[in-house]
Specification:
Layout (H helix, E strand, L loop, with lengths): L5 E8 L9 H23 L4 H14 L19 E7 L5 E7 L5 H11 L4 E3 H10 L13 H16 L7 H4 L3 E6 L5 E7 L20 E4 L3 E7 L1 H6 L2 H10 L5 H15 L4 E7 L4 E2 L7 E6 L4 E5 L5 E4 L4
Parallel strand pairs: 3-4
Antiparallel strand pairs: 1-5, 1-11, 2-3, 2-6, 5-6, 7-8, 8-9, 9-10, 11-12, 12-13
Helix pairs in contact: 1-2, 2-3, 8-9
The structure holds aspartic acid.
Aspartic acid binds next to strand 8.
Length: 320
């Protein structure tokens, strides 16, 4: 019997208030989530690997202006972009990651290249950019990643900083991230995450997304996880690995393990956070403690769902 193939993704927690975007803009973001799901699902349906599926889904979201990764990533304190990404194979625990990259058009592709090379797990800054260029991955000038929405978010965050009102800034102005997790027909799990970090972050700051065990983790037989939210807390709590340990050693179910920190310590301390996770049986969890989280999933029957707030929008992922 083949496994229940499953794909889930997020496009960042702390999405805007409903009134901040026009209905057409909400639809456009959901359309890109659906495109990302279809890209990953096509891989899984062809009995491709979970690794290829999460990569395909993340590339679509990196190329979309609607999410904080690749084109459309957040601007740092110097009004420039430094990008983080990681990918992990649950079958072998092989992983690849880049951080503070400034020129790699699709950071997840550089992370995947490192995973396959099997030498370094994490390359930073100029070293990551040079690695990508050396291996023929598409490279761009830094302004390629900039969008008017991110420029407005930086102006707003600088204003909050001047006025000392950072805490009241909307979650959507602060951060975002994209991520995908998958279970393939061979029973293997994989996770991938890509981000621009948070708006106005210090130059050189690295978040949780490229840190294996913090923002990204996958282990066959247990779970695959991708997180979104204030990365410093995800690193301190070794967030994604904590979920896996709860399942593997504490015998918790996926739903309770995935929401433990998000609805517990993070919520208590006002840390906006969310995640997507799947377990070895293809069950999906997508907890968040913010106003909303861009998210979606497709399960074995090909039924897909995308959402930003509470309302779920269904679609059929089977080819027509
Ligand atoms: N986790 C990301 C970071 O801290 C940002 C986010 O997901 O909102 O870099």
């Amino acid at each position: 019997m083949s496994n229940p193939i499953t794909l889930a993704l997020h496009g960042g927690c702390g999405v805007m208030a409903q009134q901040d975007l026009s209905p057409e803009e909400w639809r456009a973001a959901r359309r890109d989530l659906e495109r990302a799901l279809r890209a990953g699902w096509a891989v899984l349906q062809a009995r491709g690997s979970a690794l290829d599926a999460v990569q395909a889904a993340v590339v679509v979201m990196e190329d979309s202006e609607h999410f904080n990764a690749g084109h459309g990533a957040a601007l740092n304190a110097d009004a420039e972009h430094e990008l983080d990404a990681a990918i992990m194979d649950g079958a072998t625990l092989a992983a690849g990651a880049v951080c503070a990259a400034r020129r790699i058009r699709n950071p997840i592709l550089a992370a995947r290249h490192l995973l396959e090379a099997g030498d370094s797990v994490l390359l930073a800054a100029d070293g990551a950019d040079a690695y990508a260029a050396r291996h023929g991955l598409p490279c761009v000038d830094n302004p390629y990643f900039t969008t008017p929405r991110r420029e407005a978010a930086l102006a707003s965050m600088r204003e909050h900083q001047r006025a000392g009102t950072f805490k009241s800034a909307r979650e959507s102005e602060k951060h975002g991230t994209v991520g995908a997790v998958a279970l393939d027909a061979h029973g293997h799990l994989a996770a991938a995450t890509s981000t621009g970090g948070y708006t106005n972050k210090p130059v050189g700051r690295v978040g949780d997304s490229p840190i294996i065990g913090a923002g990204t983790y996958a282990r066959d037989g247990v779970c695959a996880v991708s997180g979104t939210g204030q990365g410093e807390y995800f690193i301190r709590h070794v967030f994604a690995h904590d979920i896996a340990a709860r399942i593997a050693h504490g015998r918790e179910d996926l739903g309770s393990a995935a929401s433990h920190l998000i609805r517990g310590a993070f919520a208590e301390h006002g840390v906006g956070a969310g995640a997507i996770a799947i377990d070895a049986q293809g069950r999906v969890a997508a907890p968040y403690n913010t106003l909303g989280m861009f998210r979606g999933w497709v399960t074995g029957d090909g039924k897909g769902v995308v959402a930003s707030h509470e309302r779920l929008f269904e679609f059929d992922c089977q080819p027509a």
